[in-house]
C-alpha cells in the first residue's frame, strides 16, 4: 500500500500564520518571558539573602554543600569556582572582594540585571513592538558573554 496520497486527492492546506496561531505564539512567548523573569528574580533574591562565608555559602543559617563536581572529584578548584560567591559579594556591594573571588561575578550580575529589565519590558510593551525589543536579547547575551570571556576586569 502506498503511504502517499494519490495526486488527485485534495490535501487541505493550513496557512502557517493563521490568526489563532499568532495569538497562541504570542501567549507562549509571554509565558516564556514571565518564566525567565521569575527565574532571574529568584536567583537575585536568593543571592541577596545568602551570605558568603570562607569557602562556602550560608543561606538561611545553613552552609550550602559543595556543588562543583570537578572540585569534589579532584580536590582542586575549577575555572568557574567562586563565581557564585563573587555574584553574592557583588549583590551586597562588596566589589573589591567580588573581583578578588572571581572576575566574572560582576559581569554575571550585570547580565542578570539586563535580563531583568529586558524581560520586564517585553512583558509590558505592545506585541507589535516586541519584535524590535526581542532582537536585543540575543545581541545582549552575546555581547555580555564576549565581555566575560575576553575582557578582564
List the helices and strands and how they pair.
Blueprint lengths: L18 H31 L1 E2 L4 E3 L2 E2 L5 H6 L8 H9 L3 H7 L2 H21 L2 H8 L1 H15 L3
Q: How is the main sheet built? A: 3 strands, antiparallel
Could you tell me the strand content as a percent range?
under 5%
* SSE run: HEEEHHHHHH
Low-confidence stretches: none
Query: Taking Cα atoms only, what radius of gyration do you get, to the nearest Å?
Result: 23 Å
Shape label: elongated
Strand order of the largest sheet: 1-2-3
Count of runs of 4 or more consecutive helical residues: 7
Mean pLDDT: 76
| Distance from first to last alpha carbon | 68 Å
Helix content: 55-70%
SSE class: mainly alpha
Task: Say how many strands there are.
Answer: 3
Plain-language structure description:
The protein is mainly alpha-helical. Helices cover 63% and strands 5% of the residues. It has helices spanning 19-49, 69-74, 83-91, 95-101, 104-124, 127-134, 136-150; strands at residues 51-52, 57-59, 62-63. It has a three-stranded antiparallel beta sheet with strand order 1-2-3, covered by helices on one side. Strand 2 (57-59) and strand 3 (62-63) form a beta hairpin. Helix 1 runs antiparallel to helix 5 (104-124) and helix 3 runs antiparallel to helix 4 (95-101). The longest helix has 31 residues, at 19-49. The protein is elongated and about 55 Å long. The mean pLDDT is 76.
How would you briefly describe this protein structure?
By secondary structure, this protein is mostly helical. The protein has seven helices and three strands, in the order H-E-E-E-H-H-H-H-H-H.
Amino acid at each position: 500500500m502506498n503511504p502517499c496520497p494519490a495526486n488527485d486527492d485534495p490535501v487541505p492546506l493550513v496557512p502557517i500564520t493563521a490568526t489563532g496561531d499568532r495569538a497562541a505564539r504570542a501567549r507562549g512567548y509571554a509565558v516564556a518571558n514571565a518564566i525567565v523573569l521569575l527565574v532571574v528574580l529568584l536567583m537575585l533574591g536568593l543571592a541577596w539573602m545568602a551570605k558568603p562565608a570562607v569557602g562556602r555559602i550560608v543561606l538561611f543559617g545553613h552552609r550550602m554543600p559543595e556543588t562543583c563536581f570537578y572540585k569534589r572529584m579532584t580536590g582542586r578548584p575549577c575555572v568557574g569556582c567562586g563565581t557564585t560567591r563573587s555574584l553574592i559579594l557583588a549583590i551586597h556591594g562588596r566589589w573589591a572582594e567580588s573581583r578578588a573571588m572571581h572576575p566574572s561575578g560582576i559581569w554575571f550580575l550585570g547580565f542578570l540585571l539586563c535580563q531583568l529589565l529586558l524581560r520586564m519590558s517585553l512583558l509590558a510593551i505592545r506585541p507589535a513592538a516586541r519584535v524590535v525589543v526581542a532582537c536585543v536579547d540575543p545581541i545582549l547575551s552575546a555581547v555580555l558573554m564576549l565581555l566575560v570571556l575576553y575582557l578582564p576586569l
